């Protein structure tokens, strides 16, 4: 909602919007705990969780969405929150270049063969939808006034990380031009997230071949 309000050109000094951004900011998880730390013990906290107070499971997708909201709001008092969130996401990138929701390199997919593996959901591999969201956040950040307030080393890490993410997305695009999204309505969700990321990150619209396949209702 905060992103939509920013896109609707509501002034930044609007009291309701300011309260919403502060509400998000106050829910940034800065305590050094969570299952994600099993593979990232030296990574500083800085993520956001889907739930109100779930300090054990911040997720990359919601953290990227928070960055997008902060960037579009354009206020000096969100800079530190952005830096912490970006640094956390950078540390959560998988070796294949993509991002998962909650963990790093949790891709031992053979474990899904266990009979009680909860419908192939035992692992947390990279997904196109989350990766596309991160690219959108990074792309908007690099093109925003905030770039001047970021140190050159962080900018370099963002650019390098984005390049790896683009290679991951190109390697996972299906022959029809679409991407599978794990955390939404599958192909439409995955492809739309990648397209948003590609536009923001100047990657190029590799998934446009999907668009003519919509049905007569437009969906």
UniProtKB/TrEMBL annotation:
GO terms for biological process: triterpenoid biosynthetic process. One of its GO terms (cellular component) is lipid droplet. It comes from Aspergillus tanneri. The keyword Ribosomal protein does not apply. Coiled coil: none annotated. The keyword Repeat applies. This is Squalene cyclase C-terminal domain-containing protein. Residues 3-198 form the Squalene cyclase C-terminal domain. One of its GO terms (molecular function) is intramolecular transferase activity. Keywords: Repeat.
């Amino acid at each position: 909602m905060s992103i939509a309000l920013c896109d609707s050109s509501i002034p930044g000094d609007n009291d309701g919007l300011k309260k919403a951004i502060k509400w998000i900011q106050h829910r940034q998880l800065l305590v050094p705990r969570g299952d994600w730390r099993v593979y990232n013990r030296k990574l500083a906290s800085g993520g956001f969780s889907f739930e109100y107070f779930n300090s054990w499971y911040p997720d990359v997708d919601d953290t990227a969405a928070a960055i997008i909201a902060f960037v579009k709001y354009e206020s000096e008092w969100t800079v530190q929150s952005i830096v912490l969130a970006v640094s956390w996401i950078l540390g959560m990138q998988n070796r294949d270049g993509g991002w998962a929701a909650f963990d790093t390199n949790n891709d031992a997919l053979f474990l899904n063969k266990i009979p009680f593996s909860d419908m192939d959901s035992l692992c947390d591999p990279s997904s196109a939808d989350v990766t596309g969201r991160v690219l959108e956040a990074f792309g908007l950040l690099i093109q925003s006034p905030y770039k001047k307030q970021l140190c050159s080393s962080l900018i370099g890490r963002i650019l390098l990380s984005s390049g790896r993410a683009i290679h991951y997305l190109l390697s996972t695009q299906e022959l029809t031009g679409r991407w599978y999204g794990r955390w939404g309505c599958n192909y439409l969700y995955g492809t739309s997230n990648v397209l948003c990321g590609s536009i923001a990150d100047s990657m190029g619209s590799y998934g446009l071949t999907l668009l003519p396949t919509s049905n007569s209702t437009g969906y």
